[in-house]
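WARN no homologs supplied; continuing
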Amino acid sequence: MTQKQKWTAGLGQLVIPLVALGILILFNLFRDPGFFSISVAVNNSGNRVLAGNLISIIDSASELAIISMGMTLVTAACGGQDISVGAVGAIAGAIFVKVLLQWVGVITVPSVILAVLLCCLATILFKLFNGALVAVFRIQPMIATLILYSCGRSIAYWINGDATPQLNSAIISSMGMTIPGIPIPTPIFAVLLVGLLLALVFRFTNIRLYTQSVGVNQGAARLNGINPMLIKLLSFVLLGVCVAVAGVIGVCRLGQLNHKTLLVDIEMDAILAVAIGGNNLGGGRFKISGSILGAYIIQMLTTTLYAMNVAPVNVKTYKAIVIIIIVIAGSPMVKSRLTAFWNRIHARGAQPAVQGGGLK
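OK structure emitted
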């Protein structure tokens, strides 16, 4: 496949999320021309920051975008989804707070780095547990991850108890909100950093190719010298890092830990982001950028509904209706029908020209 063909295929995979995003943008511009306006405001710390619905959408979707990247890899390699990301994210947040407030006792840049590294290590171990159930014991991913989905928040409770410890520190505030002198919310930089790191991994290794090969046909991949078990475990390791980063952002954003609400229900939104992004939930080819777009589409839809004064209790219902339409529009059956329809139109348009050329 030439580079042009690869680019065309990749763009084709993004058609549905790009169209959905375009419709949401046009709808909001028609409903409120100033919906996407950006202004400069002063926050509680006296720092000048960017404000507006667009900034809020990009900022609020940060945790979802990061987890969606890791979820895409697990989906591509294993043909299933990890539904324990929210619960393990709560564990990561609990470990982060435990390290800073009890093990180290002081919040400094080195202690924060140590806490983040320990969070990554812990979530990797938990995700390796999930990965072992999937790769070694061949349990369906959603069933295998149901264990930590059920008990993960209880583990977070055991780590810190039922308290909601506060993290009163300028460093924590900078990580969750904005860095003084930089008006852009810090979580946005976290999304860019994780995306850049994954892009570098794909650029300098064959992980993308191996992951897609295992997802498409792991028997054929094994015959070609690829270890499917190792690739599946690696996908869970990368997801663990994404979950740790998202959990830390969630804690820093609020400046406290609440294991009951931290990243609650994010696993469902992450799966939807992967699906909306045009990725096959049965495994195989994937596109990280599609999942990121899916995360921003979900957040824009949520923000739009709140801007229309939809009651919070009804937001999930309206989101479900719109997301069902998007997912069905991006399904293989609909895509194949639309492709066949387009080919027929193109053939009919080309036929008179051919006949005319023959008459000459």
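The CA atoms of residues 181 and 258 lie 29 Å apart.
OK
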